[in-house]
Write a structure and sequence with these properties.
The protein is built from 17 helices and no strands. The chain has helices at 2-41, 47-61, 64-76, 82-95, 97-103, 114-120, 124-141, 145-171, 178-185, 190-204, 207-218, 225-238, 241-246, 252-282, 297-313, 317-327, 348-353. It is globular, with a radius of gyration of 21 Å. The model has no long low-confidence stretch (mean pLDDT 79).
Length: 354
């Protein structure tokens, strides 16, 4: 019965986390939606500019999937070319790492003084109620839609952090479970680790939610840095499912855009998995066997992987575009008329601008 209750509490926390993420992301898109068309569509052939734009937009809406889906919609409507999407997609991948740093605040365990004592004040239990009340007050009292959206964003963030707290409380008893520790040792196998990150992300369609689960599991002391690396690789592949689904029924370039996102994540995972296996086979790295016992550990590994992926694959961006182009051959019978893409309805202000 205890296990059942813990499982239900974990699922309940995940649902709150996912709902809060959606509320916050939707509010942020409404706040900046009128500018997103000009921001993203002005991503020229300069990959560096596109990278910075993708990073900034994703950090704003807290969802690389949302950014990628918008890019797919822009390409389908003729607002962006296929080549312009590469930098934006790479930037979106790095920008999504910011979510892990936000959610990591919920698992801070600090003392009474020093830096950790200060950071412990950032825990949701310290200030989340004030944030939620402020958001509710703004939403109910303000007549300005922009201010209402700010209130919704605050409420969404509060719900998100409550979800993290629920998940953390659900897994806390597992710290003393030998069976749970034995289960986690299975993920030392890189193939199983990748599947452990891939499958949950495919199900919930959110790498942020998967990262949140991994962060709370890390508080049990059963996740090592070596174990976390393949899991993070897997969840980065799994997050591509949203863009792939959004490209169904779109034109060939929109489908190619979704494939660029998929190929980038698969190739980066394969590349760094090979590097990881070769290095660990030749050199003993004690750090990898060390438990992730800091609130920022998972976030740091996730961010490092994202940055290294961009650095290693950016020089081959043209090849990734060619691979996506070959994967979706030309269709002579395809309609070339640019229409308003239904994906842009997710951000109405962008659709109106179009």
């Amino acid at each position: 019965m205890t296990i059942l209750l813990q499982t239900l509490q974990l699922i309940c926390g995940l649902a709150r986390f996912r709902y809060g993420m959606n509320v916050m992301g939707d509010a942020m898109k409404r706040i900046g939606g009128s500018r997103m068309k000009s921001i993203l569509s002005n991503a020229t052939s300069n990959p560096r500019k596109g990278f910075l734009l993708g990073l900034g937009v994703t950090a704003l809406v807290q969802s690389s999937s949302a950014t990628t889906v918008m890019v797919v919609g822009f390409v389908n409507s003729g607002l962006m070319t296929l080549r312009q999407t590469v930098g934006v997609i790479m930037g979106a991948n790095v920008g999504s790492a910011s979510t892990a740093w936000l959610t990591g605040l919920s698992v801070i365990e600090g003392g009474n003084d020093g830096v950790l004592g200060f950071l412990s004040l950032l825990k949701p239990t310290s200030w989340m109620p004030i944030l939620a009340i402020t958001g509710l007050f703004i939403t109910m009292m303000s007549k300005s839609m922009r201010k209402k959206n700010i209130g919704h964003a605050l409420l969404g963030f509060s719900i998100l952090m409550v979800g993290m707290e629920y998940m953390a409380m659900a897994v806390d008893p597992l710290k003393e479970s030998d069976g749970f520790r034995s289960l986690l040792t299975m993920f030392k196998n890189p193939a199983l680790g990748i599947l452990a990150g891939l499958i949950p992300t495919l199900v919930v369609q959110s790498s942020a939610a998967s990262i949140g689960i991994l962060q709370v599991l890390a508080t049990t002391g059963g996740i090592t840095y070596g174990t976390s690396i393949p899991i993070i690789m897997g969840l980065n592949i799994g997050t591509c499912v949203t863009a792939m689904l959004s490209s169904i029924g779109a034109n060939k370039n929109a489908r190619r855009t979704a494939l660029i996102h998929l190929y980038f994540n698969i190739l980066s995972a394969l590349l760094w998995l090979i590097v990881y296996l070769v290095v660990t086979a030749l050199v003993d790295i004690p750090f990898l066997a060390h438990p992730v016992d800091t609130w920022w550990g998972i976030a740091a590994v996730h961010t490092a992987f994202k940055i290294l992926s961009v650095i290693s694959l950016a020089p081959f961006s043209r090849l990734i575009v060619k691979l996506a182009t070959v994967s979706v051959p030309e269709d002579k019978g395809e309609d070339t008329i640019d229409l308003l893409d239904e994906r842009l309805f997710l951000t109405p202000t962008v659709a109106v601008e179009r």
